[in-house]
Amino acid sequence: MVNQKIMKAAPKKLLLPILFLGLFLPIFNAQALSLGGFFGIGDFAYEAVANIFGYSAYLLFASLGTFMGVAVTALAWVVNLRIYTNVPVIEESWKIMRDFANMLFIIALIVMAYGTIFNIKGYDFRSLIPKFLIAALLINFSLVIGGLIIDAAQILNNTFLNAMGDIAGHLGQGLEPWKLLPEAANASDGAEAISSLAFSSFVTLLFAIFMAFVFLISVAVPLTVALVRIPILWALLIVSPMAWLLSILPATKGAYDKWWHQFIGWNLFLPYYLFFMYFALYFLDRKDEVLAGLGQTFVNDKITGLEGLQSDFTFGLIFYYFLVAIFMIGGTKVAMSAGTFSGTGVVQVAKWGRDRVANRIGWTAAGRAVKGRFDELGEKEEARIARQTGYMRDALGRITGGKVGFLEEQQAKDIGEIKKRFERITDPAELRKLMDKGPLRNQLAAREVMKDRGLLTSDDYRKTFELYGGNNTLAGRQFAKSIDYGKLSSTDRGDWYKDLTDVEAKRKVAEVMAEKGEFDTVDSIQRAQSLYALPGEKANFLKKAARRITDNTTLRGLMTTGSDQEKLAVREILAERGALTGAEMFDTYSMYRAGSKEAVDFGTKVDFENLSQTDRQTWYNNAPDNEVKRKSAEVMAEKGDPSMMTAPALAAAANLYANDAEKIKFLEKAEKKNFMATVDAKAALGVVRDAAGTPLATRGAVLNFRVTRMKADALAEIGYDGGWGNPDFVNAVQAKINALQTSEPSIPGGPPTTPGGPPIMPKPGGGERFKKGLQDNATDTRSLAQIFALTIP
């Protein structure tokens, strides 16, 4: 009972000190009762408590790192967050307040009426009507006015944000908070090693935790205020119609003034705070210069008794943590107090947020650290990771430099922001000045603008590449890939091609050089081909580069080397130049997949007229593609190749076409070489029809049908073999002459029909004129003899 009363009477605040003593006092190696050296109660208790402390300390460190990473990221996100006034819920809420305020105008009118009747100073018509009209007008534009003020403040915010770049990155890289905590290598042997570290460096651990809390609170205070301002500004926008209404009456004008104080104050908080943060980051970027300016040699000396960290405590390290804390926490206080913030209650809100954040992060994290437990496997894995990257780097992740290429990404972001400003400069001379002065990122931003406008010289490109870090940096390699090498001279392209080490950038230069014909030897082309991995890529490059080699003999050496795609690329070039034999042409065609678009395209481009009859016959007999087969057959028909000049061969070739009209058109190509063979093929195919649509299936019917529709010059060009040397053909022509002469007989000449008139001139008949046309156009003497033998009835 007594014990229970004592426990009830003990203040709850004593629990934390008791817990603290329970954790740390067992660290000191006081030995308890031991039985003969074989079993020691003190040893057992020491081991258990030491391991519990190790687990707890590790949890505390990890929690600190996590909270710091989240806080820094959240701060960077919140200060970059833009306040939009066109949010639907804000607009609808504002409309409700506006409509309600419009209804309350009646009360203002009633007050004005009574004030006028009773002559109350300040409430009469003369005093209130101007305010009434102004409020009635502006109350409907209060949301727009508030939005303009917010946008104006945002312009100030953007000025500082653009100048600062990545806030989280600057804080993490500048302060390097992961160096505050013990090296993980000492914790690799388990909880006993951690507890040993705590015993030997107890003060160091406490001071590291204190410094971490300083960093955490420095971020948490402005984060709390910056986050709270957003809903407060939205709320002030929603009630803005009521504020304008309250401006009418003297008794309510104080509320109107207070609304303006609050609205302007919350808008100006962030510009004021960013002003101080800008200087905090500015001092961080020039840390070495500031420490050197202190003029003391001890700033870099480690402080005795504070060892065991990744980087021992120095006066410079402590100085910079407190300097940043002064700027960030003090900047928050000054920003809240500046201008119209005096007496608005913001200080109380910020103080509450600061205290709450500090208390919760500090004591609650400590309480959780005591209760946390990690199994042995998890602890060993965490120790391994910590040895590689440090406790805090794992906790802060990408913010504090754990990401490869972080600095280059930050540089690219900063350059992009500055480039947006420089794009407004239209004078090239002004941009050229900026290319060589000021901070490096400003120079690079100006050079990027000049590059986009095509105003950089060859030397400018080279210097910009070097400023980016050349082949050794990602930024340098990306810049090299962005250059338009087609606008450079051949000498400059050659220099870039020789100096670049990035494969993708080197390919880009090689592509331009290939198109410009700057690879003039097979060896240089093959070396450039090694930049590509896939056979298709190599073949495409080879096709571009090899076109510039005019010596076909040299190119022939590439016909048998490399992949099939590379061989085809060379063969296509030689084929276009007519440097392949018919057999080589067909071999090239056969290398393509049968029926593929590439095969058909190559086959239809072949100049069959310049091939021998044997080669044409090979193509016709062996080509699997009908389109290629038809082209070969057409040339064979026009040339009169013997293998094609028979009725069965012509009929078979005609069947390669889809319809009768196409078949007839093909057969007529062979008429000059063997007219009668085409007639027999038409009769066999049944492609010629009379006026009634009936197919003409006999030689005589097809022959007469065709001859009666041909003009004299076309018939005269028919060859002797298979034409004028064939009696059936001659008889068909004779029949046409007879029919023409009968339908249009000749008119004999005679004397004048009237005295003194002109005589009547003779007029030849239709048959005579047709025969005369045959005689005039015939060139073969044998055919001409047959024409002269034709008679006129």
From TrEMBL:
The keyword Transmembrane applies. Keywords: Membrane, Transmembrane, Transmembrane helix. Residues 748-762 have a biased composition (Pro residues). The chain crosses the membrane at residues 56-79, 100-120, 132-150, 202-226, 232-251, 263-284, 313-331. Residues 742-770 are annotated as: Disordered. This is Uncharacterized protein.
